């Protein structure tokens, strides 16, 4: 049988090689105009995949990562996040929870994993709805994790949620379907967030903080330094167009996905990665 490789294969494989085998962080990447200012947090997952994390077919047939209840993805924040952090920024998400408990999509914690400096989570479903929550704990309020903003949405369980949060000046805004959905006032320090040397960054959980782990699929999780930049989810013909999606779209070439996954893992296992991180 001839193995048909889905079109997304090379888009999946090349970032893995770049992330695994080059000694620089995402925010250090440069283009001819300077820093890219975009951090793809799914790069933290790595290959081979950690326990309880697997490849799945995502929205519009593009690849996504499935997080089980025992998934634990994290590393030192200084290996990936600029310090100080962007004062204004955007978070773009494409994710599908599979339980009513919601959970943390990503979090940057203090060195003791007691406080979330920055993070985004989905609340537990209550009365048929749940909230998108932004955690932002600055120097003035570091005694405990601060919920800076939340936005009420429908029950997202089993559905692809695609949205962008922007933090700019004294406001946090939620965008869906490429339009502003809601905004709330945001009181914070005039200084950007800074992180301790031992701070951790986590995907699908918040370390030892006790916040609920996310169980479901994550396809897109990007931090951007410019909240006014064009949203990837709004680009013409972009598969991540904002809003809701029900179920899983199946790509026409996905009959060989199991073999492709084995092929990816076989190749990547031959790559020697010399830099590892522990929290």
Automatic annotation (TrEMBL):
Signal peptide (residue range): 1-26
Domain Thrombospondin-like N-terminal: 38-227
Keyword terms: Repeat, Signal
Region (Disordered): 227-249
Name by which UniProt lists this protein: Thrombospondin-like N-terminal domain-containing protein
Native organism taxonomy: Eukaryota, Metazoa, Chordata, Craniata, Vertebrata
């Amino acid at each position: 049988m001839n193995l048909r490789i889905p079109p997304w294969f090379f888009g999946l494989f090349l970032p893995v090689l770049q992330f695994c085998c080059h000694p620089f962080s995402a925010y250090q990447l440069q283009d001819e105009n300077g820093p890219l200012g975009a951090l793809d947090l799914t790069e933290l997952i790595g290959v081979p995949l950690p326990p309880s994390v697997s490849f799945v077919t995502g929205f519009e047939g593009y690849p996504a990562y499935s997080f089980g209840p025992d998934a634990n993805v994290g590393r030192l924040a200084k290996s990936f996040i600029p310090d100080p952090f962007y004062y204004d920024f955007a978070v773009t998400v494409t994710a599908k929870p599979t339980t009513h408990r919601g959970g943390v999509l990503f979090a940057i914690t203090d060195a003791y994993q007691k406080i979330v400096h920055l993070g985004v989570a989905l609340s537990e479903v209550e009365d048929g709805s749940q909230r998108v929550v932004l955690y932002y704990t600055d120097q003035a309020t570091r005694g405990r994790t601060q919920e800076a903003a939340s936005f009420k949405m429908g029950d997202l369980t089993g559905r692809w949620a695609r949205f962008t949060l922007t933090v700019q000046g004294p406001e946090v805004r939620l965008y869906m379907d490429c339009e502003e959905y809601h905004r709330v006032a945001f009181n914070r320090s005039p200084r950007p967030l800074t992180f301790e040397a031992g701070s951790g960054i986590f995907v699908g959980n918040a370390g030892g903080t006790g916040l609920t782990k996310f169980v479901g699929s994550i396809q897109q999780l990007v931090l951007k330094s410019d909240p006014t930049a064009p949203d990837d989810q709004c680009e013409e013909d972009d598969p991540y167009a904002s809003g809701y999606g029900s179920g899983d779209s199946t790509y026409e070439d996905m009959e060989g996905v199991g073999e492709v996954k084995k092929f990816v893992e076989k190749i990547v296992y031959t790559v020697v990665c010399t830099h590892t991180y522990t929290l």
